[in-house]
Design goal:
Rossmann fold; 5-stranded parallel β-sheet; alpha/beta
Length: 98
């Protein structure tokens, strides 16, 4: 089953992603280094990582697998996800190719 990974700290479209994921019954991992006040259902996994450079990116890259989707504006993270066979979308919904 496809899962969605959100690079959450700077993502301006979290609510929109969650609505689409709920409609399609997809698991979502919202990864950030600060607690985000966002409501979600049983398919939302809020992942709080320690503060530090690229810690959230590392968590996503370590857990994402082929056919999953990453939502990010971070080109190095996008490249790491694509190398694992995942799809990557920017915050506007445009596919990113690293």
């Amino acid at each position: 089953m496809v899962e969605i990974y959100i690079d959450g700290d700077a993502c301006p479209v979290k609510d929109e992603i969650l609505r689409v994921a709920e409609r399609h019954d997809l698991q979502v991992h919202l990864v950030s280094n600060a607690w985000l006040r966002i409501e979600g259902g049983p398919k939302l996994n809020k992942v709080l990582v320690p503060d530090g450079p690229d810690v959230a990116d590392d968590w996503i890259a370590d857990h994402i697998v082929a056919h999953d989707i990453c939502i990010t504006g971070d080109i190095p993270l996008a490249s790491r996800c694509i190398e694992k066979g995942a799809s990557v979308l920017g915050h506007t919904g445009e596919a990113l190719y690293a």
